[in-house]
């Protein structure tokens, strides 16, 4: 997991994704909507100041945000490594052509976020956990904004296979969470 997204995309042999039916894509679009909803919903959540266990609640909100962050970064920039891996290229033919035009600095930023989130969520490490204040610092709004930019570009592509009703629900989420610039 130490390899970058760009390295994975260039060096690993990509597994061919199975062509999905429109019915499968519609079901997966519902799942994608859920992940986007959770990313945006948890970006600003904090425990109530009077909470009995504020740290526990704050950590749960942060972990949920990071799980959905990681899922969406992998969705846009990951490679098929499993039979049931769902990627943007399932929905858009020639996704690599669109993805490769993306800003390299932003991809590098998101790759660092993905690696850091993976380390925190999937491993018990010496470096830190959510009990370490330094490791709990994440600029959730900036992360959300970077991912939402990709979501918007993805939805704007003329040949994506996202059903219109789902697309509309996702665009509503993006409108309610405009980028902080």
Short overview:
With 181 residues, the protein is an all-alpha fold. The protein contains 8 helices and no strands. Mean pLDDT is 83; it is low at 6-14.
Plain-language structure description:
The model is unreliable at 6-14 (pLDDT under 50). The protein is globular. It has 8 helices and no strands. α2 packs antiparallel against α3, α2 packs parallel to α8 and α3 packs parallel to α7 (140-156). It has helices spanning 5-11, 22-42, 54-77, 88-91, 95-99, 104-122, 140-156, 164-176. The longest helix is centred in the middle third of the chain and has 24 residues, at 54-77. With 181 residues, it is mainly α.
Topology:
Elements: H1 5-11, H2 22-42, H3 54-77, H4 88-91, H5 95-99, H6 104-122, H7 140-156, H8 164-176
Helix pairs in contact: 2-3, 2-8, 3-6, 3-7
Mean pLDDT: 83
Strand content: under 5%
Question: Gap between N and C termini, in Å?
Answer: 32 Å
Largest sheet: none
The counted number of beta strands is 0
As a percent range, the share of helical residues equals 55-70%
> What radius of gyration results from the CA coordinates?
17 Å
Give me the strand/helix succession: HHHHHHHH
Molecular shape: globular
**What count of helical segments does DSSP give?**
8
Q: Please identify the structural class as seen in this structure.
A: mainly alpha
Give unreliable regions as ranges.
Answer: 6-14
């Amino acid at each position: 997991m130490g390899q970058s997204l760009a390295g994975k995309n260039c060096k690993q042999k990509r597994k061919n994704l199975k062509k999905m039916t429109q019915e499968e894509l519609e079901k997966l679009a519902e799942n994608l909507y859920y992940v986007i909803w959770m990313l945006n919903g948890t970006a600003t959540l904090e425990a109530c100041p009077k909470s009995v266990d504020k740290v526990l609640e704050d950590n749960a909100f942060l972990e949920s945000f990071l799980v959905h962050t990681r899922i969406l970064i992998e969705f846009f920039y990951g490679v098929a490594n499993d039979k049931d891996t769902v990627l943007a290229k399932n929905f858009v033919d020639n996704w690599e052509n669109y993805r490769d035009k993306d800003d390299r600095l932003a991809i590098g930023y998101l790759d660092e976020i993905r690696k850091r989130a993976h380390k925190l969520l999937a491993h018990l490490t010496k470096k830190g956990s959510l009990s370490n204040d330094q490791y709990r610092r994440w600029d959730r709004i900036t992360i959300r904004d970077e991912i939402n930019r990709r979501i918007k570009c993805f939805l704007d592509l003329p040949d994506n296979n996202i059903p219109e009703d789902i697309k509309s629900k996702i665009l509503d989420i993006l409108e309610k969470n405009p980028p902080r610039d």
